[in-house]
């Protein structure tokens, strides 16, 4: 299925089904999601909205009392979906917002276990992705209008007539699907990303991968600017302390981190690709 406008998508009563591809493939992440604060960085439930504005960019994210805002760990499912879509597109296989897969396929790809507990957590993540409401000006070319959506329009568990589980089906947001398929706004990420355990650590890797890329001289950010971009609910002093701890650990896959202080009030995080 080709990517349609929102109005065209509404007129399409029937989506073609895309069956998840088997085998290993490179993980791909959506650049818009890497560069802006779309997800909670906390493992505990967050219901306080994320409200980010910078220049022409607006990002507003809200969660329900029951589920909270989708977390950066929940976003692994979107990385899986983007990887599937790009792999299929590059192989000449038709894709669709309507995807079918087994929990095993998703969990294995994102480096999780496959126990009953892991399946339960996967379903909770799908619930948060479906119930989280996003409003953003990114990729909107009509002035100040916002595009509103949930990461997943709907999802369901499938079962055979005898009750045996047959996987899950989900429908991706048109905004996300179009960004991955038509505009190719994706980057390959290191599979080691899935082994990063901290929310701030994961967020920082995605931001570094987006802005630093493979540039020989790397990139740098003012710490206070990073704090605003993160959407973190921590105090700035705690956020800065956590960043310093990350620099000490040097656990960022493929990148070397360094703190540069210009004055008592100005501190930069510099990063460059590891040779």
UniProtKB/TrEMBL annotation:
State the source organism's domain of life. Answer: Bacteria
Pfam families in the record: RPA (PF10134)
Lineage start:
Bacteria, Pseudomonadati, Pseudomonadota, Gammaproteobacteria, Pseudomonadales
UniProt-listed InterPro entries: Replication_initiator_prot_A (IPR018777)
Q: What is this protein called?
A: Plasmid replication initiator protein
